[in-house]
Model the fold of this input.
Amino acid sequence: MAGDFSRTLSLGDSGGKSILQKLHLDPKLLSLLLLLMLSGLFILYSASGQNIVMIYRQATYLLIGFVVMLAVAQFHPRWFQMAAPWMYGAVIIALLLVLLVGVGAKGAQRWLSVFGIFRFQPSEIMKLVVPMTVAWYLASKVMPPKFKVITITLAIIFVPTLMVMKQPDLGTSLLIAASGLFVLLLAGLSVRWMLLALVIVLAVAPVMWYGVMHDYQKQRVLTFLDPESDPLGSGWNIIQSKTAIGSGGLEGKGWMQGTQSQLEFLPERHTDFIIAVFAEEQGLIGVLFLLCVYLAIVFRGLYMASQARDSFSRLLSGALIVTFFIYVFVNIGMVSGILPVVGVPLPLISYGGTSIVTLMAAFGVIMSVYTHRQV
Amino acid sequence: MSFALKDDRTEKGIFANRAILVSVFVLLLFLVLAARMTYLQIVKHDIYASKSDNNRVQIQPVAPIRGLIFDRNGVLLAENLPTHSLTVVAERVANMDETLALIEALVGLTPDEKTQFLSRVNEWRRPYEAIPLKYKLSEDAIAILMVNNPFLTGVQVEAELIRHYPKGADFAHVLGYVGQINLREKDRLDPSRYKATRRIGKIGVERYYEDLLHGEPGYQKVETNAQGRVLKVLERKSPVPGKNLILNIDSELQKKAYDAFAGRRGSLVAIDPNTGGILAMVSSPSFNPNLFVNGISHNEYNTLRDSLDVPLFDRATRGQYPPGSTMKPFLGLAFLESDVTNWTETINDPGFYMLENDDRVYRDWKRTGHGDAINLRHAIIESCDTYFYEMSFRTGLDLLHPFLTKFGFGKNTSLDVANALPALLPTKEWKRKNRGRSWYAGDTLNMALGQGYMLATPLQLATATSVFASKGKWNRAKLVQFIDGDELKEETKPDDIIIKNPADWDRMARAMEDVIKHYQGTARGLSRNLNYRLAGKTGTAQVVGIKQNEKYDSAALKERQRDHALFISYAPIEAPKIAIASVVENGESAGSTAGPIAKLVTDHYLNSITSSNELLGADHGR
Done:
């Protein structure tokens, strides 16, 4: 009888686990991601001017991203915790190398060429490593964090942020800073400190404007404030994307029927501005559907983070999903003209391999944290 | 470290609180995005919809201006004329049949224009591309179209530059022409360079130098209205015009030569032996290249294509003729080089030649024979066939072939002549492969008369004559002299021809001079009013084989079955300036057809350069 009972138990144990669970994947989050990716391919097909080669490439990137997510999800969260400080050190060195010997593109040095075989952006990896390191640091301290802990945390965040800003890559540096700050926020940073930070930001802004920011970054902010001032130069993108979105109306002009997009009025329409193509062709209904998918992903992610086994996992997982949300918000915000154009792609929909792989690695971490919680 | 205070339960609580805070925050921001989108897509929809429909700023590619082509004296041969064309953006037309009917009623449309347009609408193209419907609109037509503008959505009048060839038929085969880019060409062209280009070089110089003539496109940002009409140009990056070409050709000489044929079928190529520059290259009859620029109508094309005189065929570069006796000076040098004879040896010519063990009678063109004391010099002057039968037999194909190859026979040696044919200098292998038989001694004898399997184009004959005139020094034949001021580079040249006894060049030249000067010379008619030293050689090429024992009776043959007349020449002998090959199809007697045309061209050229030199001299004297 005892043998039977134990067999039933073990049967129930393994039988209760689906293949997906064995693979450390959450079915709900996975379905949402797949829905998003599939919609993305359809949008890209129209946005790229029916360029099937681009679709094949994007599908390949998505596949690679999927494999990366699967691989990362297999690691136990404690591995991330152990590796965090070492990875942080390594990427800081890589960032230094970029500044010294990096490969330039369009006046910015972001890439590091490894033996001339492949190139990578250390700043992209930082988006994962900074929250990981902050979570590692804060997990060993008492929460909510005290002043000294906060100071060290800010140093961990802003050293790489400033290095990336120097490349110069404003969009990525802001996202890196955000991903780190969210850990602090989730760790219970008190409201007083947040208000203080706001005051400091307001005080630092003029210094940034005159000291740190490059001309093209200033131009973006100026253009954001008054796009009509430079309709053919920097304001062009915003005017055209707003026109595309606005002319889409409630129901849109139909797939591959957007005149703004198909007539090549809209620049960067398969990368950063792809949501404008979607909004023009699928209208408000399509946009709301897409927003709901994103919202569902973020909420599911937050729920998964809250179920994690320890502080480190919770903080890391939570910060990553909030950063994902910031991606979405900044991209749609800039394309629709309520935020400056900072060059952030729309997660899992914009064309391009680097951001897909980073994002999917982040989802791998979230999956890992959730599926390793019972142990 | 206050580890006592570290409590997972508390921390989980803190996180849960913060997660809820963040969720609210996230939801709020999503609502902001949703509100923003609603504002743009619902509240402001009308404004943006009309903005999208009415005032569009568009980036348009601007076609570069095609390079001009000049002759050696700066006379314009290919230019770009401003014209107005009617174009239609098919996507903007609601009812194509109605629109076409209206346009037809307003300005008239030919069936050709309609069919060409409709086939263009249906083939693959860029969306919203303007498709040409009617070219060269008159002022009146433009005015009528402007007045009816509101009824013609998607229809526009475009100003564009259209290629024009002021010298017309004179240069049709040399320059070629540009024409509409067809689907096959579209595949092969770089789409970014040809986005705004409608026409491409099809044949001749226009084709060979397409890459240089085309130039690099520019871009302009334009504001267009709902009908796609350009309202104003906001910003412009000018295109880079194509390179201008200066040819070696002298347009006056070209015209003289073309007119000299007076519509007869034939060809003439004149080359400056000092440079290889082609001074004139004529194929007669010709056609008007301007017909092809906007797409030739079916009727006009059929007339040209079906004409018995095949005016579309470039005889100068692609006409393959048996060179006949014009081969004799080259063969003569081959005999000397092979040591089978010398200048003094004489033979007896009974009017025919026979091989041992062969019944076939190889006739001399002169049935009574040239006498019993024919040496090489006389064999050239009188064009004695029997002498060449004998010496060719002695030399054999194995020695003749490599020597003739050195003069460019059997290959295309030209530098920049599009589509020039290599014609044929047969080898034993060639005959085995293509005729399935081995090479007979008789084949060599036929070749000695420039008959049989051997073929050459007028361009090849002129090149060989030019190389002969410069005593074996090679210059490739070339049409272009300067590209935007830079001299055309000749990267590789065939090896110069070195013969054992260089004095043979001069002796052969004097024999060729006597073709004209000697009382027995086959071109003695040309000696009248000759004020320079001219070397030449006549040739005839049989069109219809004459059977054994059959008498040649030209009167009985129809005009098109008469022999082709060929002539090669160069002058002045002491310092050659022009080498010519001319062919008059069915011209029968070279001395009275091909010869005089060549002399006329030589006269004109030498006189014109003398007079310009005198002018220069007078200038310097001052």
Notes: The first helix of chain A runs from residue 2 to 16.
